[in-house]
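User: I'm putting together a teaching handout on how multi-component assemblies are represented. Below are the sequence lines for each component of a complex, exactly as they appear in our records. Could you produce the 3D structure of the whole assembly as structure tokens, so the students can see both representations side by side? Please keep the chain order the same as the input.
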Amino acid sequence: MTTVTAPENWIKRATRSIHIPPVFLFLIVIFLVSGILDQVLSDGQIFSNPAIMMNIVVRSVALGIVAVGQTLVLIGASIDLSVAYTISITAVMSSYIMLGKTANVPMAIVSVFGIGAAIGLANGVIVTKLKVNPFIATLGTSLIIKGIINATFTNYTGSVPESFQFFGYGTIGPIPVSIIIMLFIYLAGWFLLARTKLGAHLYGVGGNSEVARLSGVRTDRVLIGAHILCSMTAVLSGLFLVSQMQSGAPWVGPNGFYDLNSIATTVIGGTALSGGKGGVWGTLAGVLIFGILDTTFNQLGVNPYLKTVLRGAIIVLAVASYTIRSKKEAA
Amino acid sequence: MENETQEIAQQSPEMTEQPMVEVQHISKRFPGVIALDDVSMQFFPGETHAVVGENGAGKSTLMKILSGAYTPDSGTIYLSSEKVSFSHPREAQEKGVSIIYQEFNLLPERTVAHNIFLGREPSNMGALEIRKMNKQAVEVLKELGVEEMISPTALVSSLSVAEQQLVEIAKAISFKAKVLIMDEPTAALTYTEVNMLNNLVSRLKQKGMSVIFISHRLREVFDISEKITVLKDGKFIKTVSKQDVTPEEVVFLMVGRTLDHYFPPLGTAEDFGEVVLRIKDASNQILSGISFELRKGEVLGVAGLQGSGRTELAQSLFGVVPFRTGTMELHGKAIAVKSPAKAIKNKMGFVTEDRKSEGIAPRQPIRDNMLLTVRAARALFGLISKDGVGKSRKLVPMLGQQVDIRTDSFDRETQFLSGGNQQKVVLAKWLASDADVFIFDEPTRGIDVESKASIHDMIRALTKKGTAVLMISSELPEIIGMSDRVLVMSDRRIAGELPAKSSEQEIMLMATGHVNADGTEKSASVGEE
Amino acid sequence: MTTTTVNSPESVSKALGKIWSWIKKIPPVYPVFFIIFIVLGILNPSKYQSANGIMTFLRTASPLAVLAIGEMFVLASGGFDLSVGAIVTFVVLVSSKLLANDPANAFSTIVIMFGFGLLIGLVNGFVVSFLKVPSFITTLGMMLLVRGGALYYVGGAPQGYLTDNWRAFGRNYIQNVPLFGRIPYALIILIVLSIITYIMLNRTNYGKQIVAVGDNVLASKLSGVRVKLVRVVTFMVCSTLAVAGGIMIGGYGGVNVTIGEGLEMQAIAACVVAGVLLGGGKGSVPNVIFGAFTLQAIVNLLNLMGLPKPYTDAVQGLIIIGAVAYVGLTSQKKQ
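Assistant: Of course. Below is the structure of the complete assembly, with chains in the same order as your input.
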């Protein structure tokens, strides 16, 4: 054995035994620092106003949902760069089909999930059957979707009926529907990974595809399944966004950087880019970190471009906080 | 060929019994090579059957066909007289054919139970039944008698190499296997662990299992198996009963000639020179109290159980995990080796244990692999010529000749060489670096007999030229056959030193902590049993 | 073949076999490029069959080739660099302000830009090597940082224009060259840089160590390769070339806040079309140049065929997938 087993401190042992990724500590730190900065430099709403907390979560819903899908594919040692344009195509197609009429909603939802499934299937098949590196495969499909929507739609298209805006703005009791749906997706993601065969097999495929294959796992199917589910989460994010915007525009996905942001939050959450390791709760923490930062920057009135700079630095620092102790060389 | 098989079958006492597995006229070709050429043989229940042959003889291919990883181009497989064909390993496993591969096949980030049941987790409509899975895992571990040692919920990455090996075996037998194929299961194991494996195998045999065993270590082949089948160049040569042959005869069948000696003669007094490397009281987070001397012209063997710190000693000396305390003197000068680059600057060379992950850059030409150490030591932006090394154009062919690599071109990608030749490339890399202290970690693991002998010859040739060699090995015959002195490690320190030609028993006693360095017996037995 | 009346059919077939095996070794990117270019020439002879037209094409294609070479260095070492496009944006935007509409500032601006390029590469390399953050995440963060920094500096909109002498590198030609008519500066820059990088990759200790690191980090490290140093230098090479590419792109494109968007992906695409493996271990300067040319030729072809701009993206996507699938499936067959 070449690994060095240094004496572990109790914190590490405790967090491992109850499976809390270190990112939660990071989340708490970010929250406290943000709150204190807000207290000192602004009106202190982060600590004092519960509505702001709710707002942080609601702001995170679109990214939060698609990040679950991204977590699945990353655990499978794949990646999905096409989620941003999948979100776009969902947004424009659904509002194009709905045309403001409630009667068209089911049709629209079925269609966009159909499109999403097709995109995921294409991604999965290109990765597994054509053996194309997933980075390139999904970059390619992303370009294809981009081309198709930009050629077809140039601006806001159609509209969603008021009934459908319930997804974006409705509440059940005091809690926004969107948060409930997001949490449901996280629970489903957790259940899938930790409590189903598909999840166990996905860890196998990501950890060592050959081992999984030799153990009788149908590796291709598992990975294709993960890609389909990932595209489906992108569709759900797209539906949420269009219900908020009330009309779909082709730039909604790329403008939100949902591709790279979903990857960044997932990796911040402790899922390895190389696969086989990770889970959805870490991702949720990563997403909330992004949400808190966004809100704090707004509270403090940070210049929007400076926001980008800070966000870039924080992504790197967050990931560095647990890669730095690694003995292996990164690439 | 066919005749021979039948002849054997007639002679064998199991004649009345049905073979568990029978392959007939199996052929498999890959582009450019015929891996298996019309091979027919039988395996009987309650029997351990070793398949031996040099690298490229087709053993692994045959096993992959038996276990469903490959499909044969032609020929048939019978399992308990039933004709079968596997298109996927899963099908073979379901029919009771399990295989343990040469490389570890576990997921380090998953639990023992998840690993054992990967691909067939107990589930209800797709939902895992984790409790049931863990319980079943305990049952399987119980069958091996290791349920105390290994918890089903432990992460595999937290287990030792030997424990991981046990998990692999547990995984294999959990299929209710009737046939268990072991492809070099002992490569990573030490002597005592191998003994444990032997006991395990005989237990499985008693249950009527048919065990197929592939190994390069002939001694284990003779220890474990009743029958031995020799393959050569993809062809079936002969099946023999163990008691009817000697290891020398088996080697003859494998290589087509007798090997005069396994090992070159040991060094003599005039070979040995002054002390080149002197380590005193060196420690780091793994090793403690390391002191020894290495002289010019000698092979200093390092023996010890798995986990005793053998490999770590090499890594510490070479600056991978540097020593933190103590002194290290090279040619009488104190040095601090904080990185491999530093070690190389001090003319040290390190032929690593694991060729694939530590030795070669597989997609680079042989030439570039051979020259990597030289280039790494030179100025980053120093110019090189097309064939690699400025003035000394002949370096690469010369190295090739020195290590006896047979290839048509040094521009071939290294990954396409056989294991033995890859190891020679690694060796050449260090010859090129002009090292005068060599560390070999398992220099001949997983290498065919012929390459093994030539690597042993090269090691000895190095010492004849005045190089000092530290050779780590888990194969005691290799330690005894090669070493002018033997350091024995135990519990991450040096347990003691033994002279040349010490017996295996002496080494093992010291390695297991039964004997002190001065030869007196310890009162209480400590060790890793 | 069998019916021919050659005296020694064996030697002929042997010679043909030799030629065939030689042809098989040609990377597919070359025939693909030339086929597309020939099609271009047939569709628009006045443009793509004249020296003048070809030079115009090379002026547009050269900057991407420069970016792709830099990206290739990082890919060959086993990493990614996603900050390339942001560096281009940075160069163009920040230069527009630094120049202050005064041509006299061009030289100092360019020097400052290269200084930033080296710094960005240094930070990327440091974070990857010492903080062990995967390069994908490191350079993603750097992309945000560089782009955000540039936009912050200029206040979100271009400040002033790029002076003509600054733009000359990407826009102008050397006139009255015999045989060629005129040669774009961009092409000359590309040629010079490709010679330098070719030598770096194939004729220095450094180049051989890049691919060794990309192929097997551990083995390289144990052979004495200073992996961290090699990686840091590699990221610096990449971002320096990105600055050069940025100057060329700004030269013919002018100031625009989205000028660098997506260029990192195009550079990666050019590399994979040229057969560079993601994950490291292989790289070739000439192949990558032609990979970039191929992508540009495809864009021109689609324009020429009258396809709307968005479809160019879609077709590029298809071609990237196809190219990688082709390389993957053929090399799989070989094994």
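A couple of points students might notice: The beta strands of chain A are 171-172, 175-176. Chain A touches chain B at residues 1-4, 6, 191, 194-201, 203-204, 207-208, 210-217, 276-277 (CB under 8 Å).
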